[in-house]
Amino acid sequence: MRKNSIKNTRINGEVQKELSKIIREEIKDPRIHPMTSVMEAEVAPDLKTCKVYISVLGNEQAKKDTMTGLSSAVGFIRRELARNLNLRNTPEIRFILDESIEYGVSMSKLIDDIAAKERLSHGEEE
């Protein structure tokens, strides 16, 4: 896998910022949860495709509804992206649910639980 060029990294940042703004301000779909964040946008070097990692703070149903709402609004989102960014090609957008933050929070909670049990067991022995 090759490294991203500076230009590609800059395009990724601009696309992420614009998509975040479009999802937050432009889309009126009630299925899309208000606590939806664009975590990362990976635009291919040829500007044909774009993977967008989405994080939703909510339950499983909210995540499912948000992904359904985003996939139904992909045409509108792509059109707005084309209007706001001056790119040679407007990439085809694919949304991917990113659960890394929730995974990190759950792992942190497990580590804290184990540390608390360790403190209790060492406190009883002394």
Extract low-pLDDT stretches: none
Task: Classify the secondary structure makeup into a structural class.
Answer: alpha+beta
Strand order of the main beta sheet, please?
Answer: 1-2-3
- Principal-axis shape equals elongated
Helix content estimate: 55-70%
Number of strands: 3
Cα-based radius of gyration, to the nearest Å: 20 Å
N-to-C order of helices and strands: HEEHHEH
Largest sheet: 3 strands, mixed
Counting DSSP H or I runs of 4 or more residues, the number of helices is 4
Quaternary organisation of the protein chains: single chain
Mean pLDDT: 89
End-to-end separation in angstroms reads 54 Å
**What is the percentage of strand-forming residues?**
15-25%
Characterization of the model:
With 126 residues, the chain is an alpha+beta fold. 56% of the residues lie in helices and 17% in strands. It contains 4 helices and 3 strands; from the N terminus they run αββααβα. Helix 1 (6-26) crosses helix 3 (74-84). The model has no long low-confidence stretch (mean pLDDT 89).
